[in-house]
TrEMBL record:
GO terms for molecular function: methyltransferase activity. Keywords: Methyltransferase, Transferase. Transmembrane segments: none annotated. It comes from Streptomyces qinzhouensis. GO terms for biological process: methylation. It holds the Pfam family Methyltransf_19. It comes from the Bacteria. This is SAM-dependent methyltransferase.
């Protein structure tokens, strides 16, 4: 394997959807998190975005840390044992099942993505605890009905499920379509279920963010858009948004530093809502 090749197992199906000539979100995100599962085109685009928007690496790390805090809360305090993680991306440290099963080994997780490299890598590395279960679904967030129709047997739709959508609705460009995606998913889960969501914004600062998004949309896939806090809040219609609300994901129930300081605000909203 050459130094320019991604450190992922070969796709056993020879999936022709794998494009090595166009940067892809999951692989660029992996690059920002310090991973090796990316191609030269991903690193080139990722580095250019970083040059335009130096905070993007901090956003990626804050988003990942938010996932850990949210899943910890849901497992340890809310008693959730089922997770539907949509748009999971390439595995890194502290994946959803690792956090959940580290607290409750019987937790069950379905990962959803439509990137063949992500799916191949996930199946190779994301192994469940003996007491729990993980499954991997090749599906698109634009087609939520296909997702909710494939939850069994790993997840029981009669029991509460945490629907995890980190940095995925920003790839659903039409806001009303994005709302319908969320409604379809949340209509399919019972009361006591949760929605966990992060989404980029231009409202929380981040010098160069607008230019970086424009560059991304010209040079990478899939295209992305930012949304306002009000738009992101609308995804939680009918749900009870937990404190502290829709905030910078770095400020959602963070653990203060030893001197009491909080992590810096990043241009990525995060929130958790409960279905009553």
């Amino acid at each position: 394997m050459s130094p320019d090749s991604p450190q992922v197992p070969p796709n056993p199906h020879g999936d022709q959807r794998i494009r090595t000539d166009v940067a892809h979100n999951a692989r660029v995100w992996n690059h920002w998190l310090g991973g090796k599962d990316n191609y030269p085109v991903d690193r080139a685009v990722g580095d250019r975005v970083t040059a335009l928007y130096p905070s993007i690496g901090e956003v990626a790390r804050a988003d990942r840390a938010f996932l850990g805090r949210a899943v910890t809360f849901l497992t340890a305090e809310a008693g959730i044992r089922q997770f539907l993680d949509i748009g999971t991306g390439l595995p890194t440290a502290n994946n959803t099942h690792e956090v959940a099963q580290g607290i409750a080994p019987d937790s069950r997780i379905v990962y959803v993505d439509n990137d063949p490299i992500v799916l191949t890598h996930a199946r190779a590395l994301l192994t469940s605890s003996p007491e729990g279960r993980t499954e991997y679904l090749d599906a698109d967030a634009h087609d939520p009905r296909s997702i909710v129709g494939s939850l069994r047997p790993t997840l029981d739709p009669d029991l509460p499920i945490a629907v995890v959508m980190l940095g995925i609705l920003n790839f659903v460009l039409d806001t009303e379509v994005a709302r319908r995606v969320v409604r379809t998913l949340m209509d399919a889960v019972p009361p006591g279920s949760y929605l966990v969501l992060t989404h980029p914004t231009l409202e929380l600062g981040g010098e160069g963010n607008t230019e970086a998004m424009a560059f991304w949309n010209e040079n990478a896939t899939p295209p992305i858009r930012a949304r306002t806090g009000a738009e992101i809040t609308s995804f939680f219609d009918g749900l009870e948004i937990l404190a502290p609300g829709v905030v910078s994901c770095s400020r959602w129930r963070p653990k203060p530093a030893a001197d009491g300081t909080l992590p810096p605000v990043v241009a990525q909203y995060g929130a958790v809502g409960r279905k009553p």
